[in-house]
Amino acid sequence: AFALAVLHLLGKRVPLSLKVFLTALAIVDDLGAVLVIAFFYTSNISVISLLTGLGFVIIMLIGNKMGVRNILFYAILGIGGVWIAFLLSGVHATIASVLAAFTIPADVSIKESTYINRVKQSITKLQNITSTNASILTTAQVHVLEAIKKDTNSAIPPLQRLEHAMQPFVTFIVLPIFALANAGVSLGVDVQEIFSSNVALGVGLGLLAGKVIGIVGITFLLVKLKIATFPQGMNVKNLVGIAFLAAIGFTMSLFITSLAFTHEIYMTQAKIGIFAASILGGVIGYFILKSGNEADE
After folding, report:
1. Short-list 250, 249, 240, 251, CA closest to 285
2. Domain that holds residue 127
């Protein structure tokens, strides 16, 4: 989100392909972080609970294949089944959310053209119904509006409907609470000592240098092997700029920090390393993209 906000500051000078590339990169990066949590921060696994959770995942997959599109079905099994079972198993419950999301239908029930025709027919019916000039609708009007509502729900994939419904709650409640709970850094400690520590330097360089070397290196390797091609508008300078923006770490970086360190001083050092790398990555990436795209204009 922060990296995309920096791209937003550049406006139309940045091609849409760069925004799509960075968004896809952020998704893969978060999935990688989830795998790190699963493999390195899981202990004392309860096989029975884990198998129970996987059983609920299979039930959700079967429901998907059978055409079940009720979000409540996936919410109840996802939270009450998969999430609780994974929580009790010892495997970090974050994995449950990812697995559950993969089982929710992401395709539409009716095509866009079919939806438009149905809505037009419903609107025509609604216009032909004699109005009572009262604040209460007639039964016929309610039936038509319910039909439009049903068709609208069918035209939107359940996964997208769920994402849209949750977005305000996540944006304005979950993320601010997470940030307030995890981002606090006490400046009462010796700042010079923190920046000279291996933890702060390691985390900072891991984000700043590691992301840039990894993203640029892997991308060039895939292009050279002809496994992938640069998207339209992408060049070497833009790729380096995007790689620096990808160094902006906040949510998952802080989350893994809370799992990796138990001593307060180490957590503080890691957080300062994250913040320093994020600020530097954002500033460097902004100016690289700004200069590169100004030259192209």
Report:
1. 240
2. 112-156
